[in-house]
Amino acid sequence: MNRPLIIAAVVLGVVSTGITYWLLSRAAGSPEQRLVKVVRAKRELPLGTVLRSEDLEVGPVRMATATRDALRSPADAIGRATTQDLPAGTVLTRAHVAPAPAAPSYTVEGGMRAFIIAVEAQVGAARLVRPGDRIDILYMGVDSKAAQVLAQNIRVIELPDAKIAGKGEGKATATPEGKANLVVEVTPDEAACLFAAHTTGVLSVALRNRSDTVPVLVEPVLAPPAAASEEPQAPPERPRDAEPRSSQPNREPGPRDVAPPLPVPRPAPVESVSSPMTPGKRVTVIRGTDRQVVDVEE
Q1: Among 45, 107, 37, which residue's Cα sits nearest to residue 81?
Q2: Per-residue pLDDT tens for 251-275?
Q3: Are the C-beta atoms of residues 61 and 32 closer than 8 Å to each other?
Q4: What angle do CA 191, 193, 198 make, to 5 degrees?
Q5: CB atoms closer than 10 angstroms to residue 141
Q6: Are 183 and 173 in contact (CB under 8 A)?
């Protein structure tokens, strides 16, 4: 037999066998070539959900249906937030997730508000306050000088000045103006009240036990009046039948006979009359913060 013909037949047989095997394997297909693993939503994921491992699953999908930006590993999604509502079974892509917003350093209960107040650092318990403490907020008006309790059992959320100073969870830090800033959790009404009080007076705080949540009725307290020794004394009232200063009995008193008036910032007190008076009108005499009701004969 001719050797060239034999070699040609063998080569042709090998080539045809290879082509046949390739065609058969392509028709039958293989999981390795036609399936890929992707990350899918294990449950319904609303917008803004920060993804955890239990929210995700990895499963195979056909290569023809998997997009290029499909996530292949759960590590690409855990800790990120969804950018839209995703039904269960959705194949996650890079467009479906985004960096989660930074978590706040504090939380506010539903219906409450976080409000910053500047309180006196040298008066009250501001320097003893720590985050999580419960306080009462006191107020004194500049004009009225009346002290009152504006809010009770208020939770302190954060001490911003201490945090800036690097003291972490330390006590409140005083500002150069002698104030201590506190972030407190209050109702909307209390926030409005504190804002109004901040513009008309000064605030201070009293530290209370965290387990003591019962409000106490406290009446407004007026500041005590100045000491009597510091106030100018009113001149004594001259009796009507007193003799004139001049030794001459019938001479009218001249300018030198009358003592110069003393500065009296407040009206002299009204003395009560011992003799009975007929019912008449009542007049209220106000001297500083003191009140006195006097009967006046008609």
Answers
A1: 45
A2: 554 444 444 444 444 444 544 444 4
A3: no
A4: 95
A5: 15
A6: no
Tokens 């292949």 belong to which residue?
72
Cα 256 to Cα 224, 242, 245, 251: the distances in Å are 41, 17, 10, 13
What's the one-letter identity of residue 159? Answer: L
Tokens matching residue 289: 């913060």
Closest to 114 (Cα-Cα) out of 187, 164, 181, 173: 187
Mind spelling out the 3-state secondary structure of 184-223?
EEECHHHHHHHHHHHHHEEEEEEEECCCCCCCCCCCCEEC
pLDDT tens sequence across 90-144: 999 988 998 877 656 567 888 999 999 999 888 888 888 888 899 999 999 877 7
Q: What is the DSSP string of the chain?
A: --HHHHHHHHHHHHHHHHHHHHHHHHHH--HHHHEEEEEEESS-B-TTPBP-GGGEEEEEEETTT--TTB--SGGGTTTEEESS-B-TTPBPBGGGEEEPPPPPSS---TT-EEEEEEEESSSSSGGG--TT-EEEEEEEETTT-EEEEEEEEEEEEE-HHHHHTT-TT----B-TTSEEEEEEEE-HHHHHHHHHHHHHEEEEEEEE-TT---------EEPPPPPGGGSPPPPPPPPTTPPPSSSSTTPPP-GGGSPPPPP-SSPPPPPPPSS---S-EEEEEEETTEEEEEEE--
Longest dimension (CA), the chain: 181
Using CA atoms in the order 175, 177, 179, 185, what is the torsion angle rounded to 10 degrees?
-80
Q: What is the average pLDDT across 38-46?
A: 91
Backbone φ, ψ for residue 139 (5° rounding): -140, 140
- 162-to-182, 206, 209 alpha-carbon distances in Å: 10, 19, 22
To which residue do tokens 């037949």 refer? 9
